[in-house]
Design a protein that fits this description.
mainly beta, 6-stranded antiparallel beta sheet, 5-stranded antiparallel beta sheet, 2 helices, 13 strands
């Protein structure tokens, strides 16, 4: 696997080596020793999967305080535009975001450390999205930042359909009111 540092410290774009032939393909999606060597130690405790249709925007989600989560995300089927927003107050890139396309064709993965909000927009007719997390989901610790927050100014692409958001995401808070990490 190739571990590519992004402009935001701690966020890595990971490109696995894909072996393909007339039967299909094979690649390693996770190897703890390799990951630890390139990124650092992370103990994943839960795997999650979602299926969404085109135009669904999930995020920008994070868990507050001790329940913050590091995530390793990828797309099994379809295409998404994935976004990580730096909420670490002491970071040089505080309030900045990294955006990349993840798909079943490029097989890329994105590692997002603790202290970030995360979201994605489905670009294909549907997408199956999976992610490993290093901390369990805790409903009372979850939070959501407005996807269209003016301070963040995320360059979401225009689609020919309106974005679909959950009720929770429609009521998300501005970045300025979000809990930030020290």
């Amino acid at each position: 696997m190739e571990y590519i540092k992004t402009p935001i410290e701690g966020v890595y774009l990971i490109q696995p080596q894909v072996f393909g032939d007339e039967r299909g393909y094979f690649f390693e999606a996770w190897r703890e020793q390799d990951f630890t060597e390139h990124v650092g130690p992370v103990h994943f405790v839960q795997d999650n999967e979602s299926k969404s249709r085109r135009g669904v925007l999930r995020g920008l989600h994070y868990q507050r305080g001790q329940w913050s989560q590091a995530k390793l995300v990828r797309v099994i089927s379809g295409r998404v535009l994935d976004v990580a927003v730096d909420l670490r107050r002491q970071s040089k890139t505080f309030g900045q975001y990294f955006m990349t396309e993840l798909s079943d064709e490029n097989h890329k993965m994105l590692f997002i450390p603790r202290g970030f909000a995360h979201g994605f927009l489905v670009l294909s007719e549907e997408a199956v999205f999976t992610y490993k997390v290093d901390n369990a989901y805790v409903p009372q610790a979850e939070a959501s930042i407005k996807w269209d927050d003016k301070d963040l100014n995320i360059a979401w692409p225009a689609l020919d359909i309106p974005f679909m958001l959950s009720a929770k995401d429609q009521q998300a808070i501005p970045f300025a009111e979000a809990e930030h990490f020290e």
